[in-house]
Amino acid sequence: MKPDNASPEKTDATLLARLESEARRLGFDAVGVTTPDALAATSYAAPAKLDRYITLGHHGDMHWMAEHIERRRDPAILWNGARSIIMLGTSYAPDEDPLEILNAPDRAALSIYARGKDYHDILKGRLKQLARWIAGATQADVKVFVDTAPLMEKPLAATAGLGWQGKHTNLVSRAHGSWLFLGAIMTAAELPASAHHADHCGSCTRCLDICPTDAFPAPYELDARRCIAYLTIEHKGHIPRALRKPIGNRVFGCDDCLAVCPWNKYAAVSREHRFAAREETDNPPLAHLLTLDDAAFRSRFAGTPIKRTGRDRFMRNVLIAVANSGNDCYLPDVMRLLDDPSPLVRAMAVWALSMLATPAAVRSERDDRIGQEPDGDVRAEWLKTVEDTTTPESHMNAERSGGHT
């Protein structure tokens, strides 16, 4: 983006004050400045932490993290003309407790961030407006990023003074808690860097203790392969059997570690109404989601982050929630989805059947279908039902349903 024709201004405290004022006018709630070399600072050592993360395989099948690791480690490689990085935050703090929906097993728990308009679209427009203002004020080139480039936004935001990376690895702000969307503007202008933010987690471990799948090997470390947000959004394959029951009714993402952060008590409800849930995304009944084909899925979640995951992964997650509900009223839809075109969906329909139907009914369906199933993973899921249908839980399901499917 080239600078507009505007008179240059000195990059001093006055300019920074005007920058903050303009950012807040555009709807940003936090703003700070850092430098491309700040990530390598001794107190943050973000590149070394990234190397360890990749080496341990904690990124799962997010292969793009390893493929672009050099640019991710060093923003100067992404753009060698950058002298300053302006980090912006926009609050999406909810007006409700995100954990309450976990007590409603007949409804789909959707992450707070995904229930409104896609934040990428909202932030990108604002960032472009602010970038034009910066370019005009400094006569320096600028580039805009919003979670679409190999930038480590969270550690950059910490070095820019927006907050600190908490023990759950997410950014925590004293003013906005754990509820900040982040964007970045890189500029060739040399701006005074903001003061770094000290870590205020103290001895608190609430975010680590609440994790249903033990996704934190240690404070400040996340193993994405066990993280429900990763499993239900980024992971393209079958979710490991041992992690399915802890998912509960979380169909898209997980807010547990964010929601329990004590710093959230200082966070005001987001002033951006477009982040609020609409009827289609307000933790809808599972029964409404079981019937979605691809067209209906795209229509229902148009303009939200959920759409980008795709219908098949979403239905995989819905079926896990259905299985965890323990309610055999969903069996007709589960039976129908045993014939779904997607192997990902069929496999989870098999598991849902094994959790909800009587052992005899499961064995009957398995014997009828396994020989005709073309997908190896789905066949393996059918074979696993032998174990599932001999568990005490399955016998309890049989007693509850009266022996009917």
Which structural traits does this protein have?
four-stranded antiparallel beta sheet, 8 strands, elongated, 20 helices, alpha+beta, disordered C terminus, single chain, Serine Threonine Protein Phosphatase 5, Tetratricopeptide repeat, 405 residues, two-stranded parallel sheet
Give the strand tally: 8
Which stretches are low in confidence, meaning pLDDT under 50 for 5 or more residues running?
5-11, 394-405
Cα end-to-end separation? 61 Å
Strand/helix succession: HEHHHHEEHEHEEEHHHEHHHHHHHHHH
Rounded mean pLDDT score: 92
Helix content: 40-55%
The largest beta-sheet arranges its strands as 1-2-7-4
Topology:
Blueprint: H1 13-25, E1 30-34, H2 46-55, H3 63-67, H4 69-73, H5 75-78, E2 84-91, E3 109-110, H6 119-138, E4 142-145, H7 153-159, E5 164-165, E6 171-172, E7 180-187, H8 206-210, H9 228-234, H10 241-247, E8 250-252, H11 256-259, H12 286-289, H13 294-300, H14 306-309, H15 311-325, H16 331-337, H17 343-356, H18 359-369, H19 376-388, H20 392-401
Parallel strand pairs: 3-8
Antiparallel strand pairs: 1-2, 2-7, 4-7, 5-6
Helix pairs in contact: 1-6, 15-17, 16-17, 17-19, 18-19
